[in-house]
Write a structure and sequence with these properties.
The complex is a heterodimer of chains A (435) and B (427). Chain A is an alpha+beta fold and 435 residues long. Chain A has 2 domains: 226 residues, Metalloenzyme, LuxS/M16 peptidase-like (Cytochrome Bc1 Complex, Chain A, domain 1); 183 residues, Metalloenzyme, LuxS/M16 peptidase-like (Cytochrome Bc1 Complex, Chain A, domain 1, 2-Layer Sandwich), CATH 3.30.830. Chain A has 15 helices and 14 strands. In chain A, strands 1-2-3-9-4-6-5 form a 7-stranded mixed β-sheet, sandwiched between helices. In chain A, strands 10-14-11-13-12 form a 5-stranded mixed β-sheet, sandwiched between helices. In chain A, helix 9 packs across helix 15. Chain A starts with a strand and ends in a 9-residue tail after the last strand. Chain B is globular and about 60 Å long. Chain B starts with a strand and ends with a strand. Chain B has 2 domains: 218 residues, 2-Layer Sandwich (Cytochrome Bc1 Complex, Chain A, domain 1); 180 residues, Metalloenzyme, LuxS/M16 peptidase-like (Cytochrome Bc1 Complex, Chain A, domain 1). Chain B is built from 15 helices and 12 strands. Chain B is 42% helix and 19% strand. In chain B, strands 1-2-3-7-4-6-5 form a 7-stranded mixed β-sheet, sandwiched between helices. Chain B has a 5-stranded mixed β-sheet with strand order 8-12-9-11-10, with helices on both faces. Chain B has 427 residues and is of the alpha+beta class. In chain B, helix 3 crosses helix 8, helix 9 packs across helix 12 and helix 12 packs antiparallel against helix 14. The chains are: A alpha+beta (435), B alpha+beta (427). At the A-B interface, helix 2, helix 4, helix 10 and helix 12 of A face helix 2, helix 4, helix 10 and helix 12 of B.
């Protein structure tokens, strides 16, 4: 085992190429552990991977159903184990994360060994019958996944953003939805899901993250014993992939009728700027100025000055060089809101950035990056992204790079952005419903 | 001379300080060596405080507390306090709940400047007519947004099923017609009535000291308390049981969303007794409704609910309820299964091992609550406004007996106290 003291924590290289990043600290009463790997988003596997993660979380050979598993976690002082399912660029991230009480607050030895063993057993020793994942678990989770697909309308803001992304990334893996279509989910069975699990173990190698007061060397040894066994992971760490040179030539507009009382609008902008591009940090500052905080143009002008919306903000996807801006408004105000949001973006592209808003954006970002130190999950998510990209940049170095961004670079990034997608969920606007 | 009192927990290895400031404002400082510091300036005034007088004659329009919270960020010089916080790199926000209004910020740098701003803008109201009118548009959109949230609708319909006249059943934001009645004069009247420093509390958690906070308070607050301390409040009389067995509404949902509410009629006036009852109800809810429990196992095994199923508890001096929430094709079948299980438990009594499992879980969750400045500050303020002490809660969890929770099970979890709220898909 080799260890390098880098970043704020320590990076270990485990057998098979797995990486283990540990932040030794006594500032928290809880400890945090996460295991995750990234695999390319492919139409034939993306939904199976999502379903598989849910089925694995239902039980292991030792704790074969949800009640047994929940009781075991309660016994481990209410430890929480959650699925990690997300996208980054054109990759799907899969894994588990856990937080649990530290050694000072439990009887006997620390809980990390039990927690890492449990997370490993989801992959290496799941609940099986007749050589396959349990059919009842598979069928139940298929039903839950179909429910989740149908329930997207329950969260119209998220639905509108997802539809906008589908258009903005059209033809690229990232356009595929992690839940996908009901028909595809229905066709999956326990046998094919078991084959997917075996393939994932032989095609991938996870990275591990730990924040807490236990000795990282001891944890590294436990990880070797649990995850990297004969039935464990034996593949390769997948390199990061993201299509980035695909800025839209023209905007695609789409509208969907709903019975909501409010309309929901999402604008998708994109530039040929990936996360290795020199202007990548400028996208983060651009987003902060546009709609990232209460000092942003969208908040101050579209919400406060014009009173068009309550919610009006934006977020950046640095891996795809994109910014998505969203608002909810009276249906009759849809066009005036869209025009106002576009006008604020155009102002940024013209370099209309006041000293106050410039300084506020920089300070807000500096504050946000420093707050990562208090949030083990956020800290690990940052380093998971960096390690997955084989990038050894620390959070301090990233913060400094963002702080060095100039106004000229922000304007250049804004000018490189093209409006690629406008998605609108049209509401009925009934005032009666709000009385 | 402001007095400083020290409170310490051996269990948690934590200490905090209560400063009785000369201005009348109680200040709580919880030193914690984390990178970000968090400050809350809270007012013991929420949506349930719906009257100006103690007899229930002077009713305010619904949504005033929330409206006032929005408008207090506007300053007389035309600036907005959000911009001031941004200039210091702080992340500011505010929220209104049923029982309180809270202004807050978190910061990793220039903490004293942000704290001065917080103390200044909350104590200097400025309500201008045009800006109040414009805010009605913004809050109108917030009301529409909440209206489109099926979980919000289900929650408020549950409250309408439990309560006849108590203002807890009204939407915290109010309605389009109620906020239309709000004027600058009404906002000033409300502010004068409730925003008295003795009815407020400042809570700070971060790498700081009581002396540092006291110095900033001295610089920004009046040197002495110069207003009456008592605030008249009115709470309408409520029947002891739920007022409706069910409330149903169509909404844009894929599958019915449900809430089962249980009204708590016996609300201890004494804050210590209420805190003990809160601990007992938390243990009872964990015993009965957690994912490790028998009820959840049965509901899942019979395919009656989706996996997300939660229980929540609210217990205050004037209202209290337990809420079960989830999604189900047939919420009436869930209701029947829940009551079959509750009646079974009432007959046979709570299993001792289950009770100890629940105690282990709740105790661990209590300790976990002391890992973030945000969580500590919010929890501490909630305890302060409820007249309770946060470090005592751990002892209360350890002290609750099984027979206590069995009494609560028999008293509260009965059909006459319950209502079923459902938001079902529009055809």
């Amino acid at each position: 085992m080799r260890s390098d003291d880098t970043m704020r924590g320590r990076l270990f290289s485990l057998p098979g190429g797995a990486k283990f990043f540990a932040v030794p600290t006594d500032r928290f009463k809880c400890e945090y552990f996460s295991c995750r790997f990234q695999t390319p988003i492919r139409p034939e596997t993306v939904q199976k991977n999502t379903l598989l993660l849910s089925v694995l979380r239902r039980g292991t050979a030792k704790f074969p159903d949800q009640t047994a598993l929940s009781r075991h976690l309660d016994f481990l002082y209410s430890s929480a184990v959650r699925s990690v399912l997300s996208t980054r660029g054109d990759m799907q991230t899969l894994g588990f994360s856990a937080d649990f009480l530290g050694e000072d607050y439990v009887e006997g030895k620390g809980l990390y060994a039990a927690i890492t063993a449990l997370c490993a057993s989801f992959f290496t020793d799941p609940a099986m019958e007749n050589g396959h994942l349990r059919a009842d678990h598979t069928e139940t989770e298929k039903r839950n996944m179909i429910d989740a697909i149908r329930a997207k309308i329950n969260n119209p803001r998220a639905l509108c953003a997802a539809k906008c992304r589908e258009i903005l990334y059209s033809g690229e893996p990232a356009a595929l939805d992690l839940l996908g279509e009901e028909e595809t989910v229905s066709s999956i069975d326990a046998e094919s899901l078991t084959a997917r699990l075996r393939a994932l173990r032989t095609e991938n190698m996870p990275d591990f993250f730990y924040v807490g007061n236990s000795d990282p060397q001891r944890i590294a040894a436990v990880l070797e014993e649990t995850f990297l066994t004969a039935n464990g992971f034996s593949g390769q760490r997948n390199p990061m992939r993201a299509v980035t040179e695909n800025a839209p030539q023209k905007a695609v507009y789409a509208t969907e009728k709903t019975s909501l009382s409010q309309g929901k609008l999402t604008l998708g902008f994109r530039a040929d700027i990936g996360d290795r591009h020199p202007l990548s940090p400028a996208i983060v500052v651009l987003n902060e100025l546009y709609g990232g905080s209460p000092a942003s143009k969208l908040f101050l002008h579209v919400r406060e000055d014009k009173g068009l919306c309550y919610q009006c903000s934006s977020g950046a996807d640095r891996t795809k060089g994109a910014i998505l801006a969203a608002a909810g408004m009276k249906p009759e105000n849809r066009q005036v809101t869209e025009d106002a949001m576009l006008a604020e973006f155009a102002a940024l592209a013209r370099g209309e950035i006041g000293d106050t808003e410039w300084e506020a954006a920089r300070l807000s970002l500096a504050n946000a990056f420093l707050q990562y130190e208090d949030n083990p999950a956020a800290l690990c998510a940052f380093y998971a992204g960096r390690i997955a990209s084989d990038d050894d940049e620390t959070i301090e170095e990233w913060r400094e790079r963002v702080m060095r961004v100039t106004r000229e670079e922000v304007v250049e990034a804004a000018r490189a952005m093209r409006l690629g997608a406008v998605y609108y969920l049209d509401g009925c606007g009934s005032e009666e419903a709000t009385e | 001379m402001s007095k400083i009192q020290t409170l310490h927990s051996d269990l948690l290895h934590e200490t905090y300080y209560k400063i009785s400031h000369d201005s009348g404002l109680p200040i709580y400082v919880f030193p914690k060596k984390l990178t970000s510091a968090y400050a809350l300036f809270g007012v013991d005034f929420g949506s349930v405080d719906a009257f100006f007088d103690g007899e229930g004659k002077e009713k305010m329009p619904d949504g005033v507390a929330h409206f006032l919270e929005h408008k207090l960020f506007s300053n007389e010089d035309g600036s907005d306090s959000f911009e001031h916080f941004s200039a210091y790199g702080a992340d500011a926000n505010a929220f209104t709940s049923h029982t309180r209004t809270v202004y807050l910020f978190s910061a990793t740098d220039r903490f004293s400047k942000s704290l001065s701003e917080l103390l200044t803008f909350v104590t200097h109201p400025y309500f201008e007519k045009n800006s109040v009118e414009r805010e009605k548009e913004i809050i109108g959109e917030e009301i529409r947004m909440c209206r489109d949230n099926p979980y919000d609708r289900c929650y408020y319909n549950m409250l309408a099923g439990l309560y006849s006249a108590h203002p807890v059943k009204n939407d915290i934001c109010g309605s389009l017609s109620s906020i239309a009645k709000i004027t600058p004069e009404l906002l000033y009247q409300t502010y004068e009535h409730f925003y008295r420093l003795s009815n407020m509390a400042l809570v700070v958690c971060g790498d700081t000291t009581p002396e540092e906070i006291l110095k900033i308070a001295d610089e920004n607050l009046p040197p002495k308390c110069n207003y009456p301390r008592n605030i008249s409040r009115f709470c309408p009389k409520e029947p002891p049981h739920a007022v409706k067995e069910s409330v149903r509404e169509a909404g844009q949902v894929a599958k019915p969303v449900f809430s089962i509410g249980f009204k708590i009629d016996r609300l201890p006036k004494d804050s210590f007794a209420r805190s003990r009852m809160d601990a007992a109800l938390a243990l009872l809810s964990e015993t009965l409704f957690s994912e490790s429990g028998e009820l959840y196992r049965r509901l899942i095994a019979k395919k009656l609910i989706s996996p997300e199923f939660s229980s929540d508890l609210a217990l205050t001096a004037t209202f209290g309820f337990v809420q079960l929430a989830g999604e189900a094709e047939d919420p009436d079948a869930v209701w029947r299964e829940v009551f079959a299980y509750l009646e079974e438990q009432q007959k046979q009594g709570i299993d001792g091992a289950e009770f100890e499992r629940a105690r282990r879980v709740e105790f661990a969750e209590y300790i976990k609550g002391f890992d973030s400045t945000e969580e500590i500050a919010n929890n501490l303020l909630a305890f302060v406004f409820d007249g309770a002490e946060i470090f005592q809660y751990g002892d209360l969890l350890r002290g609750v007996r099984k027979d206590e929770i069995e009494e609560l099970l028999a008293e509260i979890f009965r059909k006459e106290n319950a209502t079923l709220s459902v938001v079902f898909p529009k055809k």
